[in-house]
Structures are given as C-alpha cells and as structure tokens.
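I hope you will forgive my troubling you with a question about protein structure. The matter concerns a single protein, recorded as an amino acid sequence and a row of backbone structure tokens. Please examine both parts with care and let me know of anything in them that strikes you as inconsistent. Thank you for your consideration; the sequence and its tokens are set out here:
***
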Amino acid sequence: MDEKCAGTTKDVIDSFAVYLSEKGRSENTIKTYCGVIHSFCCWLESREKMITHLTKDDIQEYIYFLEAEKRSVSTINKIFNTINTFARSIALPELTDTVERTNKRIDYVAPDYLKEAELQELLSRAKKDTSKRNVAIVYTLLYTGVRVSELCQLNKKDIKLNAKSQTGQVMVRSESGNERMIPLSKELVIKLDDYLTSRTDDHDALFVSNYQKRIATRTVQHMLKQEYNIHPHKLRHTFCHDLVRKGVDLSMVAQLSGHSDVNVTKQYLDATTDNVS
C-alpha cells in the first residue's frame, strides 16, 4: 500500500469511527467495524481501487470474494452490515440496495433487544434510581427508540406533555435534518413530567449534565453502563422490536425509528420470528 493510499484509508476510517461514536456505538463495536472497513480497503487497493470511489459492483465483488474464501454465512452477513453502515455514513445508502450473495440476497443480522426478564430487571433498577434525569433518559430511549445523539440534541420545547391525560409527543431531528414526531407512552410522560418539574434551571436542553450543560453522548453511555449495565442501542432495538411484535406496519416503524431504508426495519421481523419459535 503506497503512502497516499495509506493516508486516504486512515482518513476514511477515522471519519467512520467518529460517525459510529456519534451514533452511540460502543468502543468495541467501533473497533470491530473499523477493522472490517480496513480489510475492505486493503482488498480494494489490491485491485487498484479506492474506498473513496466505492461502487455497488465493488461491494458485490467483495461479497463474492468472501464466499469464494469459504467464509461463514454469519460472517459475511456481519461484514455486509458493516459496509451497509459505512455506506450510510457517507450518505450513499443506495450502494448496498441490490447486493446479493449466490442465489440469495444478503440477510441483515437480527438486532439484540431486551427479553422480558431483562426488561423487568431494567425497570426494577429504574425504580431504585434516585436520579430523575437518569430515569427519564432510560425511559425516553426505551419508549421512543431515539438514538443517543438525537436524545442529546432534544430541547425542552421539542416535548409536548399533557400531564393530566398522560399523553404527549416529541419532535426528533436527525443529523440529516429530517424530522419525525413520536407519540409518548403514559409511562414516559409521567417520568418526563417528574423530571422537568424538578428542574430549577432555565437551560433550553431537555437533558443537562451535572455541570448544567447539554448532556453529551459519552455521558449518557457511561451512565447507562455504570447504573444499568446496558448499551443505549439495545434500548432502541427493543423499541423497534416491540412495535413489530405488536403488528405495527413496517413503514410506520421505519418512520418512527428514523430508518431511511425499510430493509433495516425488516430485520426486526426475523427477531420477532426467532422469539416466537
């Protein structure tokens, strides 16, 4: 690999790492994903191609290469999912739209969500948590499915609560500028109202740090790890899985969760089927 290619690859991977961090991925996940993309970059460069000029054909050829190398189906799926995430990070999700493996389209790996016992354990911990802010964060992630980056950008004005009827809604803005309105559950309305009523500051942010600044993604991740031993993405997966399990139309689930590609939402169908069986 020449010096110019090495520099370009490092820049691309560094940018991908930042994207994953902003999405709330754990350090281990970031390391794994970046390792996959690094291997993909090396494969491309061995064929005198560059990750900065990635095409659908490049991805398809790589999948065929992995098959020829006798990689397992689960390994290929995980690699594909990583490349799919990378394509979204560079605002080119269409790159993976039609990628197939021999006689079969690539499957998405079913997401990890909270099973019933785990959910009850989480709620039990929340009942014992004396921090109204922390409890409100847990309930917001669990009952709206927002990404941590989206949660941290929420302002008080984005939340509309009716404590009397215990109803409400939140306006969420994604990094791409898209907006979506999510209805709030009774449980979440109660926790948010309890938290906001306890606030004595005039900060615009919905969630603030102990230093009265807008809370950061790292702070949320650290809190969830220390107090609840859970990663925020699992709460998001639980929200999506629960909607699919209840029979909500996939297009609606995609809209509520902010999925730009309904194929990403379809992975929860497999998770629901696995749960039933």
